[in-house]
Amino acid sequence: MRVPLPRRLGALVVALSFALPLSAQEGGTRIPDEAIGTAVALRDSAMAGTGAFGIVESLTTEIGPRMAGTEADARAVAWAEERFRALGYDRVRLEPVTFPVWHRGHERAEVVAPFPQPLLITALGGSVGTGGEAIEAEVVRFGSLDELKAADPASVRGRIAFIDQKMERFRDGRGYGRVVGARSQGANEASRHGARAVLIRSIGTDSARMPHTGMMRYADDVTPIPAAALSIPDADQLARILERGQPVRVRLDIDAETRGEYTSHNVIGEIVGSERPDEIVFIGGHLDSWDLGTGAIDDGAGIAITMEAGRLIAALPERPKRTVRVIAFANEEQGLIGAYAYAREHGGDIARQIIGAESDFGAGRIYALRAGVKPEAREAIARIGEVLAPIGIAYEAEGGSPGPDVGPMVQRGMAWAQLAQDGTDYFDYHHTANDTLDKIEPAALDQQVAAYAVFAYLAAEAEGDFGSAPRTGGD
Amino acid sequence: MRVPLPRRLGALVVALSFALPLSAQEGGTRIPDEAIGTAVALRDSAMAGTGAFGIVESLTTEIGPRMAGTEADARAVAWAEERFRALGYDRVRLEPVTFPVWHRGHERAEVVAPFPQPLLITALGGSVGTGGEAIEAEVVRFGSLDELKAADPASVRGRIAFIDQKMERFRDGRGYGRVVGARSQGANEASRHGARAVLIRSIGTDSARMPHTGMMRYADDVTPIPAAALSIPDADQLARILERGQPVRVRLDIDAETRGEYTSHNVIGEIVGSERPDEIVFIGGHLDSWDLGTGAIDDGAGIAITMEAGRLIAALPERPKRTVRVIAFANEEQGLIGAYAYAREHGGDIARQIIGAESDFGAGRIYALRAGVKPEAREAIARIGEVLAPIGIAYEAEGGSPGPDVGPMVQRGMAWAQLAQDGTDYFDYHHTANDTLDKIEPAALDQQVAAYAVFAYLAAEAEGDFGSAPRTGGD
Hints:
Chains A, B: It is found in: Endoplasmic reticulum; Golgi apparatus; Lysosome; Secreted. By secondary structure, chain A is α/β, with parallel strands linked by helices.
């Protein structure tokens, strides 16, 4: 999971949700009663135990880290293709996704004066390096990106800008969007102010000595400068050293660059609909991970949950009416590259892309069902919610947002659902070396498989649609 | 904190504790009533807040990691000397401690086949490197050091031995002694079996991606081979990869060596006794740390607790009868080098070394007072326990062991006390990069300052001794 919902998309979500009253509409979308029984059986079967943990165990063990553009990216694609086939999907295919390749080499930082000691950092995705030699400069601290923006450039010029803003912990992860600008935009603002490099406090909620990586991107108008994240204890340490009031000099030695292009693939498994095979309900996650951990919660869990949900549907005696498509997206982390490729390929026929949901917020249990659908379909979503209520999932008629890889399709007008996960500890591990299999509770995965299986099956059985239609006009 | 109590010393502890009935003895050691009032005031003052957190904040921020023999070792010694003076100690002095210097360079490991991916390791203290180039070999796993010992050398020869024994979590840390042999002796056993290197599962209780370092030592009869610890998630990962049944090849590239000698110092601060200045009650911690973290819980906390306890005693209107000595030991981590130097210097006059206690088990609250004293002094220890009871510390007449740096003096016959800390989470952070200031709760330090101040003050005021006497004969 990479980025918060862009502001434009947020406005669209609200528009879709509230354009009309939320009460049941005449002639609205309906979930047939006979489908409910099957959905309940899917749910109960999943809650009794699924193969999801085994899938994420296989992905994280046999592939491990799988950063976009690495040799492990190709191994992950082959793994996903083979896995879909082994799980009994009707059709499996690859769709190409091409992007520039970011390489991480070494990354070292140390306080040179007044108190020499190492600092643990990791380069941000997309960052340049320090040019083959170390940069040594005085550090100037800012409590937020806004403070840096407002700073006198004379106080920043020639220095290393240090953005030290704390992220707050919430179940829904909303603390992330409030501070992630330091990561995505910190280098741009620092460069505009004449800094030689930018260090940020990791965007995370833990107190482990684990820097959090994540994507940044240089604006066209700036000179690229190196950008790296300090672990949270290291950010605290640097702040304490600065508090002493003496000039603090830091040396950075980062080897990183973007070079060449790579073609990976969205890997797609389908359970072909019995009556309307060209109408698609999609669920999925992203196959790539950052390089530091093994991508267990981000997003091996999402891949495992949705692959296994599809398998349960594929194992039913009859195919659902619509096609259920499970998508393992390529290169989410570096800018939803796979999702945009998917939208270019499939967004032209948006009315047949009935609804989509992505699992990309870790491995915590689902507590809410939300959706961005037409008012006439609210009742159908509420009906899905009734099936999910016994496993701790509440239907919420307002709010929510689609998963990141669903976004580009939503921008084109597709309806979406959100099975909101408990992300209380998600940002303890997110984008760190600590994103490993042991952070996943198998029973929590089973609950999520149950939710995705019920959602995808009932959406595929629904009479009537959820409001997917080409967007016209502004937002 | 480095090593469990040697077996010989354990036997001695039992001998001291149980040689005679534990009941009060005629003519036993007494705590004067008038001293109790002062001790209660010391306790209550400390519980209301102390400067201990500020001391460990200063040490970990201004010095940071301070591995024995590094330039930071010298800065730490200067820091301690200056700090003792600033805190109002009567006398401050340095005593030289000389040892060979172990250097850590880089350390890298990766699975080469069948599933290429990095593994996070750290070299064990004392280890040799891989000789300027990487070692690549097949891995063979053992569930314990004993399994390796029992293995057919043909199954180990030319391979990398992987010792994968789990450590259990206990309040008193007793899980450590059960498995630490893999660290201290793993390379010896592996080398005897013809292995090219040894990898151990970190001796720790966490699930963070943080390898735990710690000391090992080559036996005279073995060819030194590189020894490193995998983080616990990495050990799990390697075990999972091995479970697939294919040959697993790992590449190790470690730069480490022991070269040269260094002279550091035990730093000693004293509050000189008013009546019997040549009788010593000592408390202390160790000043060195491993290089990975900033040595906050191991053992900045112990330094801060005991320095601050001494300061509270120094701030009393009158000096206690005996001298209270606070010792910041040099190089505990690499083999109690400072403690042995201290024992050589002061162990000849053991009867005047009245009693000693070290704080070196993290920063968790103290829950028990135990002691290795003569039977006639049990009543006095129990009386000290009564003063500590209101702050959650129970006197336990049996069991316990002295802190590691107290050990060499106890071997010579010195009485000891143990203020047993809650070490439930100690081995989550022990010897890792994660041993940083944020792991310390300031109020817990205050409670420990209270305990050490009360103990040291009352031991210095006691009428009669605790049984320190030269050891004669075997154990």
